[in-house]
Amino acid sequence: MKDNNSYFSRANKLFWFFVSIVVVLSIIKLNFGIFDTKNLAIEIVRNDSLSKINWDEKIIDIDSSYIEGDSAENKIEYLEKSWEWEDFNGTAYVLNFKVKKNDYLFSKAQRINSGNYGGALYAEMYMTDNRFLEDMINSYKGIIQNKGLNSYETLEMIVTSIQSIPYTYVLNGNPKCGEAENISKRKIPAENCTVSTSPFGCCDNVIPFAVYSPVEFAVQQTADCDTRSLFAYTILKRLGFDVAIMSSREEWHSVLGVSVPTIPGDGKRGNIGNARNYFLWELTSYGHALGQYIDGSDWKIALN
Amino acid sequence: MSWHKYIGIDTDLLTKVDPKHSERQTLILSTLTLMLFVISIICFFSGIVYALIIFQSWPIALFIGVFLSVMVFNLYRLLVMTALDVSESSLEPYYLDHEKHYSDYVELEEDYSKLTDEKIKEIVYVAKDKLREKTALNPPNRDTKRHPLTMFLRVIILTIIGLVFANGLELFLFNNQINEVLNDLVKLYATKNETWMVENMLNPREGSSFSVLNTNSLLLALEILNKGLGNWKILIDLIFILIFLLPLIIVLKSKEIKQSEYVQELALSELTITFYHYLHTQKLCKKIENEIKSSEIIFSKNNE
């Protein structure tokens, strides 16, 4: 009987103990510092602004089959690629994807034959290439889901995948590979359009605007500032982020712009009009954080 | 203390039980009822908080609070009462097979038409007293296995209810901190020109003001609560779940209840009632049968 008594009594005491805790907390409103309000509003607005990924998005494919490159039997050929990199926290990623060879050739031909420049050219390439990169975008989505990344971590994962690729000069003939740069007068490496760290590679005659299309970058991995910005824009825009390609004539440079409410510290933003809503993100080398200082006082939106 | 009446416990059944035991039983069952009242009060306040955020109207909130608390009280009452079975009692074999009990006191095939109502009552009450004495000597049945699905459903239902109402009360407990974050959100969204958020989620209707929290978005409030409390929320939720589950655990686990005199007397009472009705029905059956046999039946063709 003693055991029986003690079971009910103990459970009864436990119940009223818990109820007392709730009542005391309700009346005197003590929270013992367990509710952390610091930066909570900023985090909520940031995630709200960034997180718009459409997991089940269906896209309409573009017919590129008439481009030369198919084998005689009309068999679809794929270019299979694998990117490997680490984010700022040292987390390693592997991104496997494939691109139809015809899509790659279509994208290249469209770039060469385009009569557009600047933002109009970027827009034209984004419109077609975001569909050609479907497999790559799905691979990025796979990483986001598998690693359970939040919006900010997603941004960082994608940007570091681009920053990790060595810089390559991309020129359209003025100046040429092997000559001096227009502004800094630094000597450009001789033509060697391959992924190279020392010395940098250099791809010449990339007409009309010395920028590769996103598909070309995904396949070749050769890119300078605006090719990287366009590629990052293409991927992030498709994932639903509010991003922009930012350009500065003063610096002859392009970077990625990301619209977030605020970031820790005093972030560098665009300078003109709506460009002020975008924090700048350098993509040409690994390690640059969002909003980290970049020279130039005329940063404006080239495409958003 | 006679709270037990509110969950449908009739302690008049305990008149033949040792007064000491009867008193203890009354105390336990009243305490159990009081626990259910406390749970209902939690549901009442929690329902008010939810309804105030969604409808921003005190009359509606009070109605919803009362409705939800009554619903939960009755649901819990049902769970408690259905758990008060004879599965751990030596009465179980008789309870599951009533005829086993009847056959100990009467011949099942006998003619009962001559029995008066008083005689039937005498038989069933004597049978009840004898069964009480007989089962009191037998040890309780300890090998009982409860149906796992029923147990699982009971626990799951109460856990879900506990979690839902825990969130409501947590919103009230931490409303000052949540409001602080909401005020920061208003400022941040205003600087980002997110007028939709400010106008639709963070501004009260014209001529009115917010009640508990400065928002009419329950999801936003819950997001702030989750992010603000972090892992502490799990602990607080666990406290609420325990508050909701403890009465059920007591009913199912405490031998003072499962093997109690009340449960025994309840089963005996039910057996007695069914035994009485069995004899009464048999008596009437026999009577009707005799009447049919004694009457002359004439077959005729009416249409001729």
Describe, in plain words, how this protein is organized in 3D.
Chain A has about 300 residues and is α+β, with helices and mostly antiparallel strands. Chain A has helices at about 1-30, 40-50, 100-115, 120-130, 135-145, 150-165, 215-220, 225-240, and strands spanning about 80-85, 90-100, 170, 200-205, 245-250, 255-260, 280, 300-304. A 4-stranded antiparallel β-sheet of chain A has the order 7-6-5-8. A two-stranded antiparallel ribbon of chain A has the order 1-2. In chain A, strands 3-4 form a two-stranded parallel ribbon. In chain A, helix 3 (about 100-115) runs antiparallel to helix 4 (about 120-130), helix 4 packs across helix 8 and helix 6 (about 150-165) runs antiparallel to helix 8. Chain B is mostly helical and about 300 residues long. Chain B contains 12 helices and no strands. Chain B has helices at about 20-55, 60-85, 90-95, 100-105, 115-135, 150-175, 175-190, 195-200, 220-230, 230-255, 255-260, 260-295. In chain B, helix 2 (about 60-85) packs across helix 10 (about 230-255) and helix 7 packs across helix 9. Chain B is elongated. Classes of the chains: A alpha+beta (about 300), B mainly alpha (about 300).
Could you name the key traits of this structure?
heterodimer; A: 304 residues; alpha+beta; 4-stranded antiparallel sheet; two-stranded antiparallel sheet; 8 helices; 8 strands; elongated; B: 304 residues; mainly alpha; 12 helices
Number of distinct helices of chain A: 8
Number of helices of chain B: 12
Query: What level of helicity do the residues of chain B show?
Result: over 70%
Oligomer: heterodimer
Rg of chain B is 30 Å
Note the beta-strand portion of chain A. 5-15%
SS-derived structural category of chain B: mainly alpha
The largest sheet of chain B is: none
Derived structural class of chain A: alpha+beta
Mean pLDDT of chain A: 83
Number of strands of chain A: 8
Shape of chain B: elongated
Span of the ends, CA to CA of chain B: 77 Å
